[in-house]
Design goal:
Blueprint lengths: L7 H10 E11 L10 E12 L11 E4 L4 E7 L2 E2 L2 H4 E2 L2 E4 L5 E13 L4 E6 L6 E6 L21 E8 L3 E4 L3 E5 L16 E4 L2 E4 L6 E6 L12 E4 L2 E10 L10 E10 L9 H19 L8 E6 L6 E2 L4 E5 L10 H17 L6 E3 L6 H18 L5 H18 L14 H6 L4 H17 L1 H15 L2 E3 L1 H12 L3 H8 L7 E9 L2 E10 L13 E11 L2 E12 L3 E3 L11 E6 L6 E2 L3 H10 L6 H16 L5 H11 L6 H18 L2 H21 L5 H14 L6 H9 L11 H13 L5 H10 L3 H13 L3 H12 L6 H11 L4 H4 L3 H14 L2 H10 L17 H12 L5 H23 L1
Parallel strand pairs: 1-11, 8-9, 19-20, 20-22, 23-24, 25-31
Antiparallel strand pairs: 1-2, 2-8, 3-7, 4-5, 4-8, 6-7, 9-10, 10-17, 11-16, 12-17, 13-16, 14-15, 18-19, 21-22, 25-26, 26-29, 27-28, 27-30
Length: 903
């Protein structure tokens, strides 16, 4: 079974027994270029001590973690153990421990195509092979035997043998590169683990003369999940960062030198803007050192952009890995580059929050992810030209993720209960990241920035290279701020759900007589009231020269069910009241009736960008909560978004409008609303500045609308053929593939055309785009074949699987109806047989999420809702992670059907 679990209780017991001293790990990737070879030799040598209670007691036992093809040998304290007896699934049992121990495991690990463990990828443009590792939360065990839990830190020394001509990197710097000795000088009888099977038989993995051994320096004590190896013919750019700490620092006069490197596939080198990446990196390093006053301890700072990556990035110290989708071969908007900068800063924050100081178990995952999310946006706001645009993007996109996640039945506290690794995987979500970051922003407003920084510095000093929990952070923050943060943490970190804040405004003779804030909040897990303290601002806006301008900003503490805004009494009546102006707190904000009317008529005229984003957010939340019809939301986007110049906000509005059309609009009105939205998109496409980001956003929106409209086929075909292309719009390869996908979904393209397009420029990105277009064809037979390849096969890599799912789900609702029952019949087996990453993509991606509600019927009685409920009732013993995904998808669908029901 691929999904091997580890219980928190088991990890705690192992932690109480062991102290790990060091790892020495050898990986032999000599035959990585031979795709018929499924695995590679791996050897782990680990020294550790065990708590032994005395001679009269039985010697303690423990276990290592390893998931691979085979284990060749296990040697404990110079005694070879019987592999058949000690290897059990993903565990290697170690009996009879001494006070001090050395264990060596020789095995064969498998190359991955799921992005978990050591991923192997063949570049379709030049057939070169690339490998990299990705482990979080617990996939280092897919590469080498180890104690796979975050609180058993140790130094790691890596040795990698790889084909000559490859670049190899790890957490630390290279100490030596040597070619292996001739085979005749090696051991005459290699261990079984040194043999790998190919399509032509078994051979020694070390019989490769054109290979180089790379030896790396030992790391500082780190957790297994942030170790890393990169190997392949990567393009490498280099730079250097240096600084001297100023007189205000505890390290005054100390010089810090950090070598920098950036990697990408050789075929992407022409598009690799490494100079810009280094500029952001240097700005971040300077800023974080000024904030934390704690020298970066991990030596070099490499950043690798790798293919088919499951995440945005991973904070491996000394070698951060990123998705290569951050390298743009086609035109990208400024938002795309801003998102990359935020990710770079997010991962850099982890060097302190997560790598230097690490949570003890995944319950406290927020201790690194919430902080990195907050600090990443703060760093971009204060250290890059994007400045306050960072907080607009945070409000319009990141917090929207949190609001959505926090209203699901599966919501959880920021400090979550994580009983096992499977639960840990599921909790890399909008609560842990975006809600946690939002709450930290509120914490900074509550205790003050200086206290937050001082407490963070003390936290690093007290817990460097160790593991922590909630109280370890609250203590120094409390001391620095002079506040008892226990109550605050109870309200914000240890309860679930979100507050809803509603203004209650009364006006007489043109002036405010009363302004109150009503708070509603019930913890959805306990069912108990959970009214939280909020430090926030109330913005009062009035029309001035055609724009909605902030006339007053009133800061106050909100507590309890009703809070009076006393400072508002007597002020001129506003045209719009905005609670949580400046976005300091985390809450769903409602607009009063007058403000709603103002927003629907003029939200696009709000002069302050962040405030405008918050008003838009209030309208979207009202739409999701069936307080504002989807048709009304579509209308305001059509009327008000045309002049939006903040590109992240514009992209959010377009994305929301497309979702509202497809999911929230009643089916009997959808054709009419689609035509209206299409006309608005065309109008904005024609009127925006030539060559602008806004123009590109509207052009992409047109392609998405085209997936469901035969009427748009001639227009989309014309753009492909260069007919009536708006001035300045570059119909580059990326946009062309979006057009092809839309045409394919309407049956207006053929395979030969797609093959020709791919032949013009064959890249990994465009290969996936072609796969999406092929699976979008409205052919029932081919759709069944692609469905089978996604659900029943294992040949697709993670990226091609997602491309297949994307194409399949472009089909109309009625075309996907035959797959509803097969979906529910298959998912339990998928969860058993596939890795967590692949299973999650299938379970979430192929859930029949897009459904229409027949007029006069109840959302709860929709056939798919009822089938989902039946599956949940019949599978109460299914894995918690699987049930969670199904429950969440059901809730998304039910929300859509309720919106359709309301009209």
């Amino acid at each position: 079974m691929p999904n091997f679990n580890l219980l928190r209780s088991e990890a705690a017991a192992r932690k109480s027994l062991l102290t790990v001293h060091e790892y020495d790990v050898e990986l032999d990737l000599s035959h990585a270029r031979d795709l018929s070879v499924p695995g590679f030799p791996t050897r782990s040598s680990i020294t550790f001590s065990a708590a032994t209670s005395g001679q009269s007691d039985p010697a303690p036992t423990t276990f290592l973690d390893f998931i691979g093809i085979s284990v060749g040998s296990v040697t404990l304290n110079d005694v070879k153990l019987n592999v058949a007896e000690v290897v059990e699934g993903s565990r290697i049992h170690l009996p009879g421990l001494a006070a001090e121990n050395t264990v060596m495991v020789e095995a064969t690990a498998a190359y991955s195509s799921s992005g978990e463990g050591l991923h192997r990828f063949m570049d379709p443009s030049d057939a070169e092979i690339y490998t990299y590792t990705q482990y979080e939360p617990a996939d280092a065990r897919r590469v080498f035997a180890n104690f796979e839990q975050p609180d058993l830190k140790a130094p790691f020394t890596f040795h990698v043998t790889a084909p000559a001509g490859w670049e190899v990197a790890s957490n630390q710097s290279v100490t030596q590169k040597t070619e292996p000795a001739p085979a005749t000088e090696r051991d005459a009888a290699p261990e079984p683990s040194t043999e790998v099977k190919s399509g032509t038989g078994t051979r020694s993995a070390r019989d490769t003369p054109e290979a180089v051994r790379w030896d790396f320096a030992p790391t500082l004590p780190i957790s297994t999940y942030i170790t890393t190896v990169l190997a392949g013919p990567y393009f490498k750019a280099e730079d250097h960062f240096s600084m001297t700490f100023g007189p205000e620092s505890k390290h005054a006069g100390q010089r810090l030198d950090i070598p920098l490197a950036a990697y990408c596939r050789a075929s992407l080198a022409q598009h690799f803007d490494a100079a810009e990446i280094f500029t952001i990196t240097k700005a971040g390093l300077a800023w974080f050192h000024s904030i934390f006053d704690n020298p970066y301890p991990f030596g070099k700072y490499d950043q690798a952009f790798v293919p088919e990556y499951n995440l945005g990035a991973m904070e491996n110290p000394g070698l951060v890995t990123f998705t290569e989708s951050y390298i743009h071969a086609s035109r990208a908007t400024d938002m795309a580059y801003q998102l990359r900068a935020i990710t770079i800063m997010h991962e850099m924050a982890h060097m302190w929050f997560g790598d230097l100081v690490t949570m003890g178990w995944w319950d406290d995952l927020w201790l690194k992810e919430s902080f990195a999310d907050y600090m990443g946006h703060l760093a971009v706001a204060e250290a890059t030209p994007w400045a306050q645009k960072s907080w607009t993007l945070f409000a319009s996109r990141r917090k929207a993720w949190a609001y959505t996640q926090d209203q699901l039945p599966t919501t959880h506290p920021i400090v979550a209960d994580i009983p096992d690794l499977e639960a840990a995987k599921a909790n890399f979500d909008g609560i842990t990241y975006a809600k946690g970051a939002s709450v930290l922003k509120q914490l900074v407003a509550y205790v003050g920035r200086d206290a937050f920084i001082a407490g963070s510095r003390e936290y690093f000093k007290a817990h460097a290279y160790s593991n922590t929990s909630l109280q370890d952070l609250l203590a120094p923050l409390g001391i620095a701020s002079g506040r008892d943060l226990g109550t605050w943490a109870g309200h914000w970190l240890q309860t679930s759900g979100m507050s809803t804040l509603t203004p209650e405004l009364t006006v007489a003779e043109g002036r405010i007589t009363s302004l109150r804030i009503r708070q509603e909040s019930v913890d959805p897990i306990t069912g108990q009231p959970s009214l939280r303290p909020h430090r926030l601002a109330v913005g009062l806006f009035n029309y001035d020269g055609g724009a909605l301008v902030r006339s007053q900003s009133l800061s106050l503490d909100v507590a309890g069910e009703v809070t009076s805004v006393d400072a508002a009494a007597g002020l001129p009546a506003p045209d719009l009241v905005l609670l949580n102006d400046q976005d300091l707190s985390y809450a769903k904000v409602r607009l009063d009736a007058g403000s709603t009317s103002t927003a629907l008529a003029g939200v696009g005229t709000v002069s302050d960008t962040l405030a405008r984003s918050l008003v838009w957010s209030a309208l979207w939340n009202a739409c999701r909560d069936v307080l504002l019809p989807a048709t009304a939301y579509l209308q305001v986007v059509i009327e008000q978004a045309g002049h939006e110049r903040d590109i992240s906000l514009l992209q959010t509005l377009v994305d929301n409008a497309l979702y509202a059309l497809g999911c929230y609009t009643p089916p009997q009105h959808r054709v009419e609303e689609a035509a209206r939205l299409s006309a608005g998109v065309e109008r904005h496409l024609a009127s925006t500045a030539p060559g602008s980001d806004e123009q590109l956003v509207w052009a992409r929106a047109l392609t998405v609308l085209g997936r469901g409209s035969d009427t748009l086929v001639p227009r989309l075909r014309g753009l492909l053929d260069g007919v009536d292309v708006p001035e300045g719009l570059l119909v580059d390869r990326n946009l062309r593939w979006l057009l092809w996908q839309a045409l394919s979904a309407r049956g207006a393209a053929d395979t030969a055309e797609l093959d020709s397009e791919l032949a013009a420029e064959t890249t990994a990105e465009y290969r996936a785009a072609r796969r999406t277009a092929l699976t979008a064809f409205p052919d029932a037979g081919r759709r069944q074949e692609f469905w089978d390849s996604a659900v029943g096969g294992k040949a697709l890599s993670n990226e091609l699987l997602s491309a297949t799912i994307e194409g399949l789900t472009m089909a109309p609702v009625e075309a996907l109806e035959p797959f509803v029952e097969p979906y529910f019949a298959a998912i339990a087996g998928v969860w058993r047989e596939q890795s967590l990453e692949i299973a999650g993509r299938i379970v979430r991606g192929l859930f029949p999420a897009r459904q229409d509600l027949a007029p006069g019927t109840s959302p709860q009685e929709h056939p798919v809702i009822m089938r989902t409920d039946a599956w949940l009732a019949e599978n109460t013993d299914a894995a918690k992670g699987l049930r969670r995904m199904v429950i969440e998808q059901r809730d998304h669908l039910l929300r859509s059907l309720r919106a359709q029901s309301a009209g």
